[in-house]
Amino acid sequence: MQPPPQTSQPVTGNDGKNDASDLNLQAWGWGPKLPLRWVLVVPFLVQIFAAVGLVGWFSFRNGQQAIATLAQDLQGEIGERIEDRLTSYTTAPAIVNRINLDMTRSQHLDLANLPDLNRHFLQQVLWFPEVSYIAWGNAQGEFAGAFRDQDGQLVMALADRSTNGDIIRFRSDRNGQILAELSRTPGYDPRTRPWYQMAAQTKKATWIAPYPWYVENVLGTDLVLPFYDDADSKQLQGVFATTFSLDAIGEFLAGLKIGQSGQAFIFERSGELLGTSTGEALAIGTGPDPKRVSALASQNPLIRQTAERLKDEFGSFAAIEQTYQDEIAIAGQPHFLQVTAFQDEAGLDWLIAIVIPKADFMAQITANTRNTIGLCGLALAVSAVLGILTSRWIAHTIFTVAQGTDAIASGNLTYRVADAPIGELSVLARAFNRMAAQLNAAFEQLERKVEARTLELARAKEAADSANRAKSEFLAHMSHELRTPLNAILGFSHLATCDPTLSPDQRENIGIINRSGDYLLTLVNNVLDLSKVEAGKMTPNPNNFDLHRLLSDIEDLLGLQAESKGLQLLFDLADELPQYVRSDETKLRQILLNLINNSIKFTTEGGIAVKAMVKTQTADRATLVFEVQDTGMGVAEAELEKLFEVFGQTESGKLSQKGAGLGLPLTQRFVRLLGGDIAISSSLGVGTTATFDIQVEIVTAIDVDVKPVSRQVVALKPGQRTYKILIVDDRSANRRLLVKLLQPLGFEVQEAADGREALERWETWQPQLIFMDMRMPVMNGYEATEQIKRTMAGQATIVIALTASVLEEEKALVLSAGCDDFLRKPFRTATIFEALGQHLGVEYLYAEEEQSTELYPSESPPVVWNPAELAAMPRDWQQRLYEASQSLDDEMALAVIAELPEERAALAAGLREMISNFELGEIQKLLGGELSC
Predict the structure, then answer these.
(1) What is the CA radius of gyration of the chain?
(2) For residues 167 and 160, what is the distance between their CA atoms, to the nearest angstrom?
(3) Residue 296 neighbours by CB under 8 Å, 6+ apart
(4) Other Cβ atoms within 10 Å of 634 Cβ, number
(5) Is the peptide bond between 212 and the residue preceding it cis, with omega within 30 degrees of 0?
(6) Looking at residues 148-158, what average pLDDT do you find?
(7) Residue 613 β-bridge partners
(8) Are 229 and 237 in contact (CB under 8 A)?
(9) What is the DSSP secondary structure assignment for residue 346, as one 8-state letter?
C-alpha cells in the first residue's frame, strides 16, 4: 500500500490536535515504492506459475501430437474397413457374372432356357446377399432376371416370344416356383437399355452409372459383362448384369463408430453422393430423370462443408489422385479429414471421405488441461496463503487495512480498522474509517432510491402487462364485431350485383356500398395487421413462388390505373434476378402494391419506375433490392420522419385527402418481417424514391406450385349426389348470405342460431358439412364441434370454422377443437366453393363453360360482333362497364353486360368472350375512346 500523500495541512487526531506521531514522512524514506505484499508474494507466485504453466503447455502440445497420430490411425482403420466392405460389395457382382460366364462356356448353363435361367439367378440372389438383381439379356431382345423387391420378396422377370415381347414379373418361392403374376410392361427390349448398350460398347466388364432403384430415394449400380461366341466373328450373344443397391453402403456407414460426431461419405468424381453415415437420401424421386444429391448440396452441414473445402482445395474432385489427409477448419472448428480413392478394373472410381471433429479427441486433453489449471490454481492459492501469512507476520497492520479495503469492495461497509500503534499507520487507519462511514451512508441512501425505483418499475410492468392483455382482448373483440357485419355487407352487395332486375341507379348505389365496404375492410385489416406486428403476433408465412410472375401480375394490375392518369409504369428487372424464390409472397405483394399505389396516387405527370435488383447471392440464398421511383409532388425533408408514423400524414398527404396514414407504417413492418429494411428519399416537386431489401431462398421451378385460376361458379355439375349443408351462426344476416349463395346451386341448406341448436339439427338431419361460427351465445362453436367429433358419425362430418378473428393463435385453437378447416370473415365466394370442393369433392359448372355452351353451338360458327356498337349504348352503361374493367372485376362486368337487350346479343357475346380471355384491359381501351368523346 502507498503512504498517504503529503499535504501542507496538519493531520489531526480524534481530539482535533496535531498527532504527536505525525513525523516527517520523507524522513522515514516513504515514497513511490513497491508494496511489501508484492515484494514477498509475487516472485514466489511467478515461479510457481511459470513452472506449472510450462509443464501444462508441454503436456498439451504432446497431447495434441498424440491426438493427431491417433486420428490418422483411426481414419486409416475406418478407411480400410470401408474399402474392405466396398470390395465385398463390388466383388460379389463380379463373382456372380464370372460364375455365369464360366457355366455358360462349360455348357452347365443353358442361356436359351430362360425359365431355368431365372431359377438359377434366383438361387444366386439367395447365395449372395450383397446382390440385389441378376439378369441376362440376349441379342434377340429376350430377358431373364431375378431380384428381391422392397419387401424382401423374391421376384423373377421374363421377356421372350412367349410373352410377346412384354416383360412379366412373377412372385416366386425360394425354389423358383411361380406364385403370382405381379406386373406386365409391354414392349420391353433389353438391347435398348443403358446397361446392355454400355456392355456392347466397352466389350468388357464395366460398371454403369448409379441410377434410381425401385425403392424411392435409393440408388443401384450394375456390373455388366458381355458374352461373345467362340467363333472368329466374335458376335455378341448377350449381356450379364448384376446389381447391388447402394443403400447397403449407407447402412454400413451408419453403423460405424467415427469418434463422437464424425461422418463418412462416399461420392463420385462428379460430386454426387453414393452413401453417407447419416442415412441421407441419395436421390429425389424414382422417375426417369431423378435428381441426384450432390455432396455440395447435402443436408448434413459437415458433409456439405467438407465437400466445399475439397472443391476449393483441388479445384475439382477429379484432381484427387491419392490419399489426402489434412487438418482443416469447418465452421471455425478444426477437423481431421482423409480422402481415399476406391477404384477397380471395371471402371469404378469413387472417393471415400472421413471427417472427424478434433473436439472428439480433445475431450481427454481438455480434461487434463482443466486438471493442470486446477493444480496450478491450487499451487498459486497455497503460495498466496503462505505469502500472506508471512507478510501478515511482518506487517499485520498494513494487511489489516488491505483486508478492510477488500471488505468494503465486497459490500461490508460497516468494517472498521483498529487503531495502530505506529503514527503513520494510525493516520491511514483513521482516514480509512472515515471513508468507510461516508460510503456506508451513501450506500444506504442509494439502496432506498433503488427500492423506490424498483417498486415503480414493478407497478409500470404490471400496468403494461394489463394493457397488453386488454389490447389483445380488444383486438379479438374488434375483429369479430367489425368483420362480422362486413361479411354480410360485402356478401349481400356482391350477390345483389348479379341481379339483372336492378336499375342502373340501384346497381351504382350497390357498387358504392361494395367499394366502401372493401375500403373499410382494408382499413380494419391494416389496423389489425399493424397491431399484430407491434404485439409480436405476426410472423412471415413463406412459400415458393415465381417472382417474375408476381412482378408481371402487379404490372398488369396497376398498369391500367397508371395509364388512366396518363402515367407510365415501367418495370426493370435485373438479368441476374432469380425467378423462383421462397419468401412471404403475400407480404411482398402488399409491400409493392402499397408503394406503387402511393406513387400513382401522388403523381400527376411523368411516371413510376420499379426496379428489382440483386444485392448479394449465394447458391441457395439472396438479398434482393426493390426501388420504386416516381415523379410526383415529393415530400419535404423535414417531413420524411412522419412517413412511418402510424396515422401520420405529410402536408402533401393531407392536401390529397387520400389514405389514413397506415400504408407506409405497415409496409415498413412487413419489410422488417422479411429480413430487410426500407428507406425513402424525396424532394419537393421532383419526386420520391422508396428502396427496400428482403432476404429470400432460391428454389427451382419444380418447387413452385401452380395456382389455379379463380372462375365464377354458376351451377353444380349434373349427376352428383345432393349435399346437405348446415349453417351455424348467431347473426341471421350471415346465415342468410350463405343460404342465398348455396341454395340456388342445388345444395340442401338448413340453419342454426347457436351451438345447441346445431347439435339438434345435426343429430336429426345428418348433414355432410357444417359451416360453424365459433363465437355464439348459449353454446359456442368450440363446444359444439367437440361434442360432434366425439361420435363416430361426427368423425365423418366435415366442420369448417367461420370466424371473424384475425389472430393466428385462434386458428390453432379452432383446429385443436376438431374443426377440419378454418376460414375468416369476410370471405370470398370462391373460398366457400373451394372449401366444398376440397372436403366434399363437389364439381361445378363455371361461367365460361355455360357461356361457351350458349354462344358457340357445335353446329354453328362463333358470332361476329362489331366493337363500334359500344358507341350506341347509354353513357351510364358504358361508364359502369369501364369502371368494372378498370378494377378488373369480371363478375361486375358480366352483370353489366347482362343488361344488354336481346337485339345486342352479338355485342354481349363478344364482350363475354373478351372477359373469358382475360381481356378486361382491351374493353377498358375500347370504352376509353367512347367516354372521351
Answers:
(1) 42
(2) 8
(3) 271, 304, 307, 308, 311
(4) 21
(5) no
(6) 86
(7) 625
(8) yes
(9) T
**What mean pLDDT is predicted for residues 26-40?**
55
E runs forming strands in 631-732: 678-683, 687-698, 713-716, 724-728
CB 663 within 8 A of CB 643: no
CA distance 28 to 20: 15
Is residue 87 within 8 Å of 350, Cβ to Cβ?
Answer: no
Residue located via cell numbers 456407414: 253
Contact 67, 365 (CB under 8 A): yes
**Does residue 475 sit in helix, strand or coil?**
helix
Q: Copy the grid coordinates of residue 115.
A: 425359365
Output the DSSP codes for 210-243.
PEE-SSTT-EEEEEEEEEE-SSTT--EEEEEEEE
**Which pLDDT band, with edges at 50, 70 and 90, does 786 fall under?**
very high
Please give, one letter per residue, the 3-state secondary structure of 254-277. HCCCCCCCCEEEEEECCCEEEEEC
Partners of 305 in beta bridges: none
Alpha-carbon distance of 416 to 429, in angstroms, equals 8
| Tens-place pLDDT, residues 276-300 | 888 888 777 655 667 888 888 888 8
Q: Which three cell numbers stand for residue 925?
A: 381501351
Per-residue pLDDT reduced to its tens digit, 870-917: 777 888 888 888 888 777 677 788 888 888 887 777 788 778 777 766
What are the percentages of helix, strand and coil residues in the chain, rounded to 5?
50, 20, 30
The rounded distance, in Å, linking the Cα atoms of 412 and 416 is 10
Q: Rounded to an integer, what distance in angstroms lies between the CA atom of residue 139 and that of residue 289?
A: 27
Dihedral in degrees, nearest 10, Cα atoms 294, 300, 303, 304: 60
Number of other CB atoms surrounding residue 814 within 10 Å: 24
Tens digits of residue pLDDT in 361-396: 766 666 677 777 777 777 767 766 766 665 555 566
Q: Whose grid coordinates read 421377356? A: 159
- Rounded (10°) angle between helices 920-931 and 875-886: 140
* 468-476, Cβ contacts within 8 angstroms, sequence gap of 24 or more: 468/535, 471/531, 471/535, 472/535, 472/807, 475/528, 475/531, 475/532, 475/535, 475/806, 475/807, 476/805, 476/807, 476/810
Beta strands in 746-824 (DSSP E): 748-752, 769-773, 798-803, 821-824
- 773 in Cβ contact with 803 (< 8 Å): yes
Within 10 Å of residue 330's Cβ, how many Cβ atoms? 17
- Contact in structure between 239 and 139 (CB atoms under 8 Å): no
The reported pLDDT for the residue numbered 414 is 76
**How far is the C-alpha of 918 from the C-alpha of 357, rounded, in Å?**
60
Which of 497, 423, 342 lies closest to 887, judged by CA?
497
Which residues are paired to 157 by β-bridges?
Answer: 145, 169
Residues 302-324, mean pLDDT to the nearest whole number: 85
Q: And the C-alpha cell for 171?
A: 412372385
Q: Which three cell numbers stand for residue 95?
A: 463373382
Report which of 578, 554, 591 is spatially closest to residue 673, judged by C-alpha positions: 591
> Is there a contact between 675 and 695 (Cβ–Cβ < 8 Å)?
yes
Q: Mean pLDDT across the stretch 825-853?
A: 76
Distance between CA atoms of residues 631 and 636, nearest Å = 14
CA distance 337 to 148: 37
Distance CA 76, CA 261 (A): 17
Sequence letter at residue 864: V
The x, y and z cell numbers of residue 526, run together, are 391494416
What is the rounded distance in angstroms from the CA atom of residue 599 to the CA atom of residue 577?
23
Share of the chain above pLDDT 70, in %: 72
Instruction: Give the whole-angstrom CA distance, residue 238 versus residue 227.
Output: 5
Average of pLDDT values for 650-659?
A: 48
Angstrom distance (rounded) from CA 600 to CA 557: 12
For cell 372521351, what's the residue?
Answer: 932
Helices (H) and strands (E) in the chain, counts: 24, 30
Q: Quick one: 668 exposed, middle or buried, by C-beta within 10 A (0-12, 13-18, 19+)? A: buried
Q: Per residue in 422-460, pLDDT tens?
A: 666 667 677 778 787 777 777 777 878 888 878 877 777
